[in-house]
Amino acid sequence: LDEGATIRPIDPSTVTAMPLPTDDGEGELDAYLVPSHGEVPELADTLVVYNHGRYANIEHYLPRVRMLHEAGYAVLVWDFRGYGKSSEGTATPAQFLADARTVRAAAAAVAPDPDRVVVYGYSLGAIPAIEMGREQPGCALVIEAGFTSLARTARANTSLSLGEGMLSEALYDNVERVSEVGSPVFYLHGSLDNFQPVEDARAGYANAPDPKDFWELPGVLHGISNGGVPEAGFADYDQHIQEFLRESAPGCLGP
Question: What predicted TM-score, i.e. pTM, was given to this entire model?
Fold first, then answer.
C-alpha cells in the first residue's frame, strides 16, 4: 500500500449478517452488509456488491472489503457455495449464476439507494459480477483481474482446478457475455497478471459496451497472495475508480 495509507478496521457492531436462501431451496449463502462510514458524501449511499475470487472465503478478502469501506462505499460481500458458511458442495454453473442473481436482488433491497449499486468482480468473481450486470445492471460494473473464459484461463494455468461441477465453457465465457452488460464497465488489470493474462482481459474489454475504460498497471500481478491492483497504491486505486464513476457513471454518485 501507499506509504502512510491508513485502512481502518471495520467496526463489527455495524455489520449486518444476511444469510440468503438459494432459489433452489438447497441451502443458503453467507453474506454481510457493511455500511458506509459516511465521511465521503457523494459515496455515502453507494453500495458495492463485492464478488471475491476462488482461493478462499470472505475472511481472506477482508483487506479488499476494508479498502472499499475506507474509500467511502457501503459493501455487500458474500461467499459462494462451498466457501465459508455458505452451503457445502460445488455449485453447478446454473446454480452459481442463480446465486449471483439472488445476491444482486438482495443488494437492491438493502442498498441505501437502489439506483447506486456498483457491481464488483475480482478474479473468479467476475463470473457472478457479469451475470449480475447482464440480468440486473447496477450503475456500474468493475472488473479487477477478472476471469475471462475457461479456455483462456486453462491455457494460461495448466494446474487450474475449479471442480468438475463448475465447468461450463458457454456459461463462463466472460469475454463474450460482457457484451450483454447493461452498465458502464471499468476493467482494472496488472500487466504481469500471472493467472489472467492482460491480453485476455483486453479481449473482454473490446467486447464490453460503451461507456467503458481500462486501467492497466505496469508490473502488477494478479493480487491477494502476490500483491495486486489495490495493493500497488490505495490512493491511485480509489482515485481511478471515482474518476471512472464521475466521468462514465455519474448516477452512482450522490450530490
Answer: 0.93
pLDDT above 60: residue 168? no
Q: How far apart are CA 46 and CA 101, in angstroms?
A: 19
Cell of 159: 494446474
| pLDDT of 164 | 43
Cα–Cα dist 160/180, whole Å: 27
**pLDDT higher than 60, residue 144:** yes
Say what the alpha-carbon torsion angle 51, 56, 57, 62 is, to the nearest 10 degrees: -70
Q: Are 125 and 50 in contact (CB under 8 A)?
A: yes
Q: What is the pLDDT of residue 221?
A: 96
